[in-house]
Each structure stands twice: as C-alpha cells, then as structure tokens.
Design a protein that fits this description.
- The chain is of the alpha/beta class and 303 residues long.
- The protein contains 10 helices and 9 strands.
- A 7-stranded parallel β-sheet has the order 3-2-4-1-5-8-9, sandwiched between helices.
- The structure holds adenosine-5'-triphosphate (ATP) and magnesium ion (MG).
- Adenosine-5'-triphosphate binds next to helix 1 and helix 8.
C-alpha cells in the first residue's frame, strides 16, 4: 500500500506542547523538501490553523519565501445522535486524508481532551508523538504511580486508549504504531522531580510500549513565535525580524535532536548545548526509521 506517512501528535491533556511540536515538525519536513499535509483535529480551538495562517500573513507582509503545508481542519461533529456524529467525523477525516494523499507526510494535531475525533485520529498514526510537561500531573495520564515508592501501579486512561487504537490498527492494516513520549518544557537546572519523572517514564516505557525522546527546554521564544507563524527553524531567514540568540541556537538544536530521535535523522549544524537529564536514556530510532527522511521512511513503512 502506498500513501503518506502519518504522524499524530496526541495527549489528552491541554497545553503540553502538541501544536508547537506539530508546527516544528511540519516546518522541518518542509525545509527538507518534502510535500507535507497538516490536519487540525482541534479545529474549534484552531491553534495549528491559526499558527499556519499567521505564517502566511507574515511571509506575505515581509515578502519572505517561507514554506507552507497544505492544511485541512476537521471539526468535531455537532450531530445529536452519537452514531451519526461518529460517522460524520469518520467521513470528514477520511476526506481530509484523501485530499492530502499526494503528500509524503501528514502531521495531525489533536485536541487536549478525549473525544471520538481524537481517538479516530490516533488510529491513523504511523508514528504517535506524545509531548508531556515534566511533571507528575502530566504523567498521571500515562500511569497511576504509587506516591511512596514511585512504582507504576497501572497504565491509565490515555495509555489504555492508545493501546486500544494499536489493537484496532493491527486488525485494520497490521502495521504497528511507533509511540514516542517526549518531555517538553524541561527546566535547565536538573531537579529531583525531573529525575523522578525520568525514572518512572523509563519503567513505564517497556510496560506500555513507548520509547522516550528528549524534548524542548522551557523557553519564552516558543510563545513569541506563534504570532508570526515562525518556528525556530525559520530564524535565519532573511527578513525574519527575530534575533537569533544563543538560547535560540540551543533550542534549534533541541528540535534537531528530537527529529533524529524520531528517526528523521539530519546532520546537526549547531553544537549540542543542552544535555538530556541524566536519567533519560537516549532514544533508539524505531526499526526502519533511519536517515535520510523521505523515500526510505516510506519504504520502511511498507508503502
Ligand atoms: N518548550 C516550551 N517553552 C515555553 N513555552 C512553551 C514550550 N512549549 C510550548 N510552550 C507554550 O505553551 C503553550 C501551550 O503550547 P501548545 O499550544 O503547543 O500546547 P497544546 O498541547 O497544543 O495545547 P492544547 O491542548 O490547548 O491544544 C503555548 O503558549 C506555547 O507557546
Ligand atoms: Mg494544541
């Protein structure tokens, strides 16, 4: 079977960095020359759609030759009957995917809450990326943890949902989902909390079937880029009026490190400036996801 490689960004918790991660991934793939489609399943909030709209406006105002993906937004159905609503969402998402079928990659951003549309989106994932803040509040969606021993008691809601989608997908087309959990907004000073979260994630990874990868440090720049529709990867463009500081250089490196961990390997052009927390095992690329991105990935995915 051939078709786009689909990356879903999901976590049923608000504000963990899904749309920010989606945007950086999209722009990175575009800058590698790939045809990229984007689907906003959180159309009511519309962060990804707005981010991309801001990008078009900014590029036009400043006469910048920025890359843009093909965007589709899919709304949650408002039909009263649950069955009809699910059918409508199924049809709308299938139509969006069909529209983007000429793309090499499709990145799907999902809402920060459980919904039938979010669940449906997850079933399409070749790779699922789950950003979480470095805290036990976010970890709670992945697992119930004993407060005294920090032992994992049992997987919790979101993990169970992903597990079900994995099963559904195995029946549907037999290909596994490569599930990657990334830690976002990592504090620059290592803390006991950071170590503890890392330890629990490590214990959990094998048990519920994900691998972890380093994410982004806590940086104000991520909040500032939205209005201009820019990512850290655009800051060297002529005419982008955001100065490239040392902190931004470090942040760009974090984006590259994440891409490499996912399997989109590229040669880093900036020195590593942030060491991952000591407890964070370097993520092994998923089997078949190796450099360079593009054709190899599609072949590896059996397409
Ligand atoms: N590494 C970071 N450092 C600082 N701010 C960040 C970082 N990552 C994301 N943010 C900011 O956190 C806020 C939430 O990020 P984002 O919108 O990407 O999360 P989300 O998971 O998509 O949220 P929602 O569930 O509401 O859709 C935004 O203001 C974003 O700029
Ligand atoms: Mg979002």
């Amino acid at each position: 079977m051939s078709g786009p490689y689909i990356i879903v960004i999901g976590n049923q918790k608000g504000g963990t960095g899904k749309s920010t991660t989606a945007m950086h991934l999209i722009v990175s793939l575009l800058r590698h020359g790939h045809a990229v489609g984007a689907i906003d399943l959180d159309a009511r909030q519309g962060t990804l759609s707005r981010y991309l709209e801001n990008r078009r406006d900014y590029a036009q105002r400043r006469q910048l030759a920025l890359e843009h993906p093909e965007l589709r937004a899919v709304h949650a159905s408002e039909l009263e009957s649950r069955t009809d609503a699910i059918d409508e969402e199924r049809r709308d998402l299938a139509a969006a995917l069909h529209d983007l079928s000429a793309c090499e990659y499709i990145v799907i951003d999902t809402p920060g809450a459980d919904s039938t549309l979010s669940r449906l989106g997850h079933t399409y994932a070749d790779t699922l990326i789950t950003p979480m803040n470095d805290s036990f509040v976010d970890l709670d969606l992945l697992a119930v943890v004993d407060p005294d021993t920090l032992q994992v008691v049992r997987p919790s809601r979101y993990s169970e949902m992903v597990w079900q989608q994995k099963q559904a997908r195995a029946v549907h087309n037999g290909r596994p989902i490569d599930w990657i959990v990334i830690r976002n907004r990592i504090a620059s000073l290592a803390s006991r909390n950071q170590r503890n979260v890392g330890q629990v994630l490590k214990a959990l990874a094998g048990r519920i079937g994900f691998r972890s990868a380093p994410g982004f440090g806590e940086r104000v720049i991520f909040r500032e880029l939205f209005l201009k529709g820019l990512t850290l990867l655009d800051l060297r463009e002529n005419g982008a009026d955001v100065p490239l500081t040392l902190s931004h250089v470090a942040a760009r490196q974090e984006v590259r490190t994440l891409l490499a961990a996912i399997g989109f390997t590229e040669v880093p052009d900036e020195p590593e400036t942030r060491q991952p927390p000591p407890d964070e095992a370097p993520a092994a690329p998923a089997p078949g996801l190796t450099a360079p991105p593009g054709a190899e990935l599609l072949v590896a995915a059996g397409r």
